[in-house]
UniProtKB/TrEMBL annotation:
This is Polyhydroxyalkanoate synthase. One of its GO terms (biological process) is poly-hydroxybutyrate biosynthetic process. InterPro entries: AB_hydrolase_fold, PHA/PHB_synthase, PHA_synth_I, PhaC_N. The keyword tRNA processing does not apply. Coiled coil: none annotated. It comes from Halomonas ventosae. GO terms for molecular function: acyltransferase activity.
């Protein structure tokens, strides 16, 4: 049990004076910095307006149902009265059961004081009761569309979580203890960290999540041996060095997302999907996307297709002599892969792809999840205006938006640790990758948001036209393997499943455990998350799950078995291992290449205050 917080003595108060002066100066400088950054962009203004409209719609709905408001207020008053009685009993030394406890996954209230100290226990319960009232009140509102209710719920959740007692010095027992112990030095260091993070942010606040100086691309992350054998304005193509004497005849091309960088698939040796694929006998090629800036503003989705997968396939043919490849794609890279296979099918070149795998990939955007909050018509118009003006979307803005989808874990926890406790974040390679963002070119991103998310045109026959060719996913006969994850909040599996119903060729749908990253990067050596399979593809995802069989371990070996048992890689026709540079293409530079090393500040010509060199 943690000891109760003790008030400082008069002598300690005198010693605090110097600290308070320093804190005051830091705070003054911080406020000046904030004032200089207060002018919102077009995209930010559109979000603020959408937030205002959402709360206004909620208020109008509530006005039309006075009994609902009365019931909510009455219940809250009753809860407050019970909490008051409970506090009196606790102060009298009586053991009492709490009225409400945090959810199992809520790590904000893990300190013992939230359970053992009557003062903090009462604060926590009062906050949780209020939070529950807001959530239930919004759920019971009538007259709102699903989108309106989703947006209102999201914005209300952001405000309620921002008001959590853990986010303030005076009501966070851990922070208060440390403030007294260090005589405020934690706040001095925290304000300095906050100023530094603000300087490295585009809009909002990109909190430092890890010790970035602990990692170096190509040294302790993204270290699978290989070489860059081809590049253009948009991609570098990496060919990885084989680790087996013989390899499958058909090469494997990996198409990662260009939102963040490819090395999520090659973080460490013990969880690297790239390394594992090489060890299975695949000749692995991987697209490393450029981190674009204003000069790439006019790049389109068709350019990403032509200069990405199609250019890579042509380079692979030069390097190996093989005219077809197997595709392995991830997230938005999978959406591009589906577009590419459909385009090749419509131009009578479908045989260039022997099989295609989609990892956590949206093709049917019927349910975008919480990210749909940022994709209303009002918000999208603001994003489009900003893209038109700047020529790109700053990747730090995208990162901040994604962090708000899991705000307690990906924002407020670091806010408390970095700025209130004054602690330096610990080294963590996954969080290094998460903060190593990429910009998004205007011509591609605006088109993608409107045509895919807003209008869901990829699933419509002829709904998407690329380089004058109307594509149709229903015409794809290429065998397809879909792997989605059950807790994915970015590519929700109840949407990704319906992409598996589109192709006319053979399809295998698999559901992994965990979320968008952990469920995909799930190596057999860890044996951490299982997966579900079902040979049938019923009309709904609920029916699929009802008939699915659960398996232990990683989905990776299941995919490898699917590849070999169906002949997409021929185990009877192995060829000598291919080294980078053996074919017609020379080695340009060692992997991981220079494109993946390009940071946003470098691309935009900014002076970074990061400790990373």
């Amino acid at each position: 049990m943690q000891s109760a917080v003790q008030a400082p003595t008069p002598n300690e108060l005198e010693a605090w004076h110097g600290r308070l002066v320093v804190i005051g100066e830091e705070y003054k400088a911080l406020m000046q910095d904030l004032l200089e950054r207060m002018v919102p962009s077009d995209a930010a203004e559109s979000v603020y307006e959408d937030m205002h409209q959402s709360f206004q719609a909620g208020a109008q709905s509530l006005m039309q149902n006075p009994p609902l408001l009365w019931q909510a207020q009455s219940r809250l008053l009753q809860d407050q009265y019970q909490l008051w009685l409970q506090s009196l009993r606790g102060l009298a030394g009586e053991e009492v059961e709490p009225l409400i406890t945090p959810d199992k996954g809520d790590r904000r209230f893990k300190d013992d004081a939230w359970r053992d100290d009557p003062y903090y226990r009462a604060i926590m319960q009062q906050y949780l009761l209020f939070s529950r009232m807001v959530e239930e009140l919004i759920e019971r509102l009538d007259g709102l569309s699903e989108d309106q209710k989703r947006n209102l719920s999201f914005y209300a959740r952001q405000l309620v979580n921002a008001m959590a007692p853990t986010n303030f010095v005076a009501t966070n027992p851990e922070v208060l203890r440390k403030t007294i112990e260090t005589r405020g030095q934690n706040l001095v260091e925290g304000l300095a960290r906050l100023r530094k993070d603000l300087a490295n942010s585009a809009e909002g606040l990109n909190v430092t999540m890890t010790d970035r100086s602990a990692f170096a691309i190509g040294e302790n992350i993204a270290v699978t041996p290989g070489a860059v054998i081809y590049q253009n304005e948009l991609i570098q193509l990496i060919q990885y060095t084989p680790s087996t004497e013989q390899v499958y005849k058909t090469p494997l091309l990996v198409v990662p997302p260009w939102i963040n960088k490819y090395y999520i698939l090659d973080l460490r040796q013990d969880n690297s999907l790239v390394r594992w694929l090489v060890e299975q006998g695949h000749t692995v090629f991987l697209i490393s996307w450029r981190n674009p800036g204003p000069e790439q503003r006019d790049l389109t989705w068709a350019d990403y297709m032509q200069m990405g997968p199609i250019a890579a396939m042509e380079a692979i043919e030069q390097a190996t002599g093989e005219k077809s490849v197997n595709l392995l794609s991830y997230c938005i890279g999978g959406t591009l892969a589906a577009s590419t296979v459909a385009y090749l099918t419509s131009t009578r070149r479908g045989r260039k792809v022997k099989s295609v795998t989609y990892m956590a990939t949206l093709q049917d955007f019927r349910d975008p999840g919480d990210i749909g909050v940022f994709l209303s018509e009002r918000v999208l118009e603001g994003i489009e205006a900003q893209l038109e003006r700047d020529g790109y979307l700053d990747g730090r803005v995208m990162a901040y938006s994604f962090n708000l989808l899991r705000e307690n874990d990906l924002f407020w926890s670091f806010y408390i640790n970095n700025y209130l406790k004054g602690d330096a974040p610990a080294p963590f390679d996954l969080l290094y990758w998460n903060t190593d963002g990429t910009n998004l070119p205007a011509g591609t991103h605006a088109w993608y948001l409107r045509h895919m998310y807003m209008e869901n045109r990829l699933v419509q026959p002829g709904g998407i036209e690329l380089d004058g060719v109307k594509i149709d996913l229903r015409k794809i006969s290429t065998p397809s393997y879909f792997i989605s994850t059950k807790e994915d909040h970015i590519a929700k599996w109840n949407s990704t499943y319906y992409g598996a119903l589109l192709p006319k060729g053979p399809v295998k749908f698999v559901l992994g455990g965990s979320g968008h990253i952990a469920g995909i990067v799930n190596p057999p050596s860890k044996n951490k998350y299982g997966y579900w399979t079902n040979d049938a593809l019923p009309e709904t995802h609920e029916e699929w799950l009802e008939g699915a069989e659960q398996h232990e371990g990683s989905w990776w070996p299941h995919w490898q078995a699917w590849m070999t048992e169906n002949g997409y890689v021929d185990t009877e026709k192995l060829v000598p291992a291919r080294q980078p540079g053996d074919g017609e293409l020379e080695i340009l530079e060692p992997a991981p290449g220079r494109y993946v090393r390009m940071t946003i500040p470098e691309v935009l010509g900014e002076a970074s205050t990061s400790s990373e060199t």
